[in-house]
């Protein structure tokens, strides 16, 4: 099932769901900060900052949206307003969903000199370093941020990496589950948490357990999540989350709900123009394969994906312990280092 895991790990596309997710992800932030008001006023009345934000966002909207243009305009925006960490976060999120950790790092490096007093910047620096495999540098950045604010929200995704490193190190499953219970899922208790982000981390970890044969522990943790995963209001927040929910529902025999989600994904793709439908063809193939994998139809998964299926055609592989030659002892060291960075 390596093809399934690879496809899920790097799921996304450069022209449709990833773009719409970037916009939907920040909708509430724009509303809170009244940034959307600049779309409602004559552009002549906008400030220079509002004009720059408008230029950047306009490349993410409408039929003519363009990833490269959006990235270029965010570089320009952050050159003019390097203290705008919300726009930096948006730029990094865009980079993440099109598999560009190197570009994400360049964004942070560009504004770092103007933000060395802000703990957030070091979490934003640590993440692309982590994706690029530069673990020692990522730890140094994390420690700098935590020295300023030990409760920095930007570092919470590190817990997913901690759990994965323990899993790769063949640590006791109880250790992985401890991180899942006490750190990943505890994020839901925060008033400022983003549920979609929590569920991506949680389901991604449980799928890894499931693929490794730890089916019982994975299903035990999935059971209390089912009502929320069947809630259509969280569907289509993120392409990767949709795929993970599809697996979770089908593996737990929630077939009707899984079929509804799969049909909804197909419907969304069918409403796109011909070019985007072609781009998304393999994505729908992957969704269908994930659904069948959850039902235990392994031969059907192979028949659906075929022998030449290559998840790398979706997006560059950004972060994985496997494939970099790290043995169990190295993975264990990284897990301990990441966990230590949270407390010292």
Automatic annotation (TrEMBL):
Residues 248-275 form a coiled coil. Keywords: Coiled coil, Repeat, TPR repeat. The keyword Phosphoprotein does not apply. It comes from Triticum turgidum subsp. durum. Belongs to the TTC38 family. PANTHER family: TETRATRICOPEPTIDE REPEAT PROTEIN 38. This is Tetratricopeptide repeat protein 38.
């Amino acid at each position: 099932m390596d093809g399934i895991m690879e496809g899920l790990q790097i799921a996304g596309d450069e022209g449709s769901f990833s773009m719409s997710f970037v916009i939907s992800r920040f909708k509430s932030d724009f509303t809170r900060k009244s940034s959307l008001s600049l779309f409602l006023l004559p552009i002549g009345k906008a400030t220079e900052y509002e004009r720059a934000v408008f230029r950047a966002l306009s490349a993410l909207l409408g039929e003519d949206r363009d990833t490269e243009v959006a990235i270029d305009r965010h570089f320009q925006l952050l050159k003019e307003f390097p203290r705008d960490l919300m726009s930096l976060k948006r730029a990094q999120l865009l980079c993440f969903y099109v598999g560009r950790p190197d570009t994400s790092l360049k964004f942070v490096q560009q504004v770092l000199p103007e933000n060395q007093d802000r703990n957030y910047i070091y979490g934003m620096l640590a993440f692309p370093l982590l994706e690029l495999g530069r673990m020692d540098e990522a730890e140094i950045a994390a420690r700098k941020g935590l020295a300023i604010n030990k409760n920095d929200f930007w570092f919470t995704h590190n817990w997913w990496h901690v759990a994965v490193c323990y899993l790769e190190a063949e640590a006791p499953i109880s250790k992985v589950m401890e991180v899942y219970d006490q750190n990943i899922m505890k994020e839901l208790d925060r008033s400022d948490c983003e549920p979609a982000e929590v569920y991506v981390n949680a389901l991604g970890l449980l799928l890894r357990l499931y693929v490794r044969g730890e089916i019982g522990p994975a299903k035990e943790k999935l059971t209390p999540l089912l009502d929320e995963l069947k809630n259509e209001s969280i569907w289509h927040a993120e392409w990767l989350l949709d795929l993970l929910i599809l697996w979770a529902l089908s593996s737990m025999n929630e077939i009707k709900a899984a079929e509804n989600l799969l049909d909804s994904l197909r419907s969304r793709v069918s409403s796109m123009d011909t070019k985007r439908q072609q781009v998304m063809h393999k994505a729908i193939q992957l969704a269908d394969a994930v659904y069948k994998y959850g039902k235990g139809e392994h031969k059907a998964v192979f028949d659906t994906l075929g022998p030449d299926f290559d998840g790398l055609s979706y997006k560059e592989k950004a972060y994985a312990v496997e494939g970099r030659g790290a043995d169990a002892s190295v993975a264990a060291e990284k897990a301990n280092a990441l966990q230590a960075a949270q407390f010292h």
